[in-house]
Amino acid sequence: xxxxxxxxxxxxxxxxxxxxxxxxxxxxxxxxxxxxxxxxxxxxxxxxxxxxxxxxxxxxxxxxxxxxxxxxxxxxxxxxxxxxxxxxxxxxxxxxxxxxxxxxxxxxxxxxxxxxxxxxxxxxxxxxxxxxxxxxxxxxxxxxxxxxxxxxxxxxxxxxxxxxxxxxxxxxxxxxxxxxxxxxx
Length: 185
Prior knowledge:
Layout: E1 4-7, H1 13-20, H2 23-34, E2 38-45, E3 48-56, H3 63-68, E4 74-80, H4 89-103, E5 108-114, H5 118-126, E6 130-131, E7 137-139, E8 142-144, E9 150-152, E10 155-163, H6 171-178
Parallel strand pairs: 4-5
Antiparallel strand pairs: 1-2, 2-3, 3-4, 5-10, 6-10, 7-10, 8-9
């Protein structure tokens, strides 16, 4: 069975909570999406959510990221359920975010990955994300504790950036391609 990636809607929230937990986190991200502060993408296998990623469209919370990457959207909270990992679902979620940004005219995307998360860093490098060149950053992501409440935990992270390129030819290139040989441009 294939995976369908789509932006969250209200009807998705209860199945998402049941599958992924973190009700408070997802409720907050969905509210932010409704206010154009970000986009919550969900990976579905049939009628079951199996992964998610949040596209942060606001200024970064971390000062250094805000300073060096102003107005650059951030890929955050990439998560795939353990039983569905290593099946390309994380890559599909990332590509959906990138396609969304390209369609919106964005030229770059950034993310922060924990310094000890080698598997995620390898995935991002394979997808052409590169170190941003300004050193490590202390990030404060939210995690759900045993009581189901959100808590903030400090993490040392590498910041990675990717230049986004549209697969659509530019209008000038299209004209050059379509013009008969010897025709002035």
